[in-house]
Amino acid sequence: MWALPELIEAASRTGQTQLAADALGRLAEATSIGQTDWAPGIYARCRALLSDGQNAEGWYRQAVDRLSRTRLRTELARAHLLYGEWLRRERRRADARAQLRTAHEMFDAIGMQAFAERARRELRATGENVRRRATGTHGELTPQEAQIARLARSGLSNPEIAAQLFLSVRTVQYHLAKVFTKLEITSRRQLWQAVPGSGRDGPMA
Questions:
Q1: Would 126 disulfide with which of 64, 93, 117, 192, CB 3.0-4.6 Å?
Q2: Higher pLDDT pick, 31 / 87
Q3: pTM score of the predicted model
Q4: Is the CATH number 1.10.10.10 carried by domain 143-194?
Q5: For 113-127, what is each residue's pLDDT tens digit?
Q6: Which CATH number fits domain 3-125: 3.90.1110.10, 1.25.40.10, 2.130.10.10, 2.60.120.430?
Q7: SS3 for the chain, per residue?
């Protein structure tokens, strides 16, 4: 099911409307049995991509509303981004900026820098400049990397960190690997000195 939204967005951007419509039909079936807000939220976001005018705006608003009631921050941020991009194409710059600023801030906080950069470019197209986050700077952690590092420092395992932040274990492993590279450390024990703590943490066993 998770591949369908990606396919719909890619197909809609490349003019493959029939492919996108077919995928949307399959997504409608996959999300029709959901009892939570995330399934209709994802469907609404995708439906908006294949709609025009007030219909499109209605679907975008529904997507943002539904996804804001879930814990899927990345999917909500993408809804704000797509809505902002659509508003910019509609030449509603002020409205677009509000959505794009939200998307940029969310992606930046999560650590999804490719999407944050996409939102930044869209904001620049509306006439608003946003400073690009410096990447690859020695010792400089993104907000999400810092959060994961602090949790690892406190002694939580990767699965425990993943459960607390609603991420996959693989995502936690990926971010910790980046933390180790940036801080030039090779083990979790070294996080005790490399990462500031709360003062209540004890040394890791």
A1: 93
A2: 87
A3: 0.65
A4: yes
A5: 889 999 999 999 998
A6: 1.25.40.10
A7: CCHHHHHHHHHHHCCCHHHHHHHHHHHHHHHCCCCCCHHHHHHHHHHHHCCCHHHHHHHHHHHHHHHCCCCCHHHHHHHHHHHHHHHHHCCCHHHHHHHHHHHHHHHHHHCCHHHHHHHHHHHHHCCCCCCCCCCCCCCCCCHHHHHHHHHHHCCCCHHHHHHHHCCCHHHHHHHHHHHHHHHCCCCHHHHHHHCCCCCCCCCCC
